[in-house]
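Lecture notes, unit on protein representations.

Consider one protein chain, 198 amino acids long.
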Amino acid sequence: MSQPLLKNKSQINTIPNFLTLYRLLVGLCLPLVWVAFHSGKLVLFLIVTAGISDFLDGYLARKLKSCTTTGKILDPIADKVLINIAFIWLLYLKKIPALLVGLVLAKDISLGLGAILLLIKFKSRFHLSPRYLGKISTAVQLVFLVVVISHSFFSFPVGFLLSPLILLVYTFTLLSWIDYSLIFFKVLTISPDTVSSK
């Protein structure tokens, strides 16, 4: 079932959109915050609150019936900006494997370019709602970021979670990549009207 949209579909001044913008701002400012304050506590706070905002914006959009076209566009962009910049930052600090970062970046860049090409080709006929595997992948990546930061900067006893979480990030990133790629192929070969939101 499609989510109800506001009459002014493009408006941005809604609570869910402000939460999405907060997540986008956190992603863009994360390296600057680290350089300026060198504070693991502040970075952890920003990542955790940004992760919470990812859940809240969708929930509130449905609850308040304030879904907008702007929000639907900004939400995945904010997710990708936050996650990719955080992964690159942790790679720079040598906290996570380069192969893992490369996989996440390759998936998001390729799917982003694919979505842009489909939008250009089909324009308003192409509507792609978030997929379940994509949501799980994002959630796993955010949990992984919190655990890595907690373990690296505070020595919290969560190191035993790193190996299984790395495996989960690899698994769901690949599964989500394959899932979206199959949808994009289906759109190109059949019709944009065949896209499912699951």
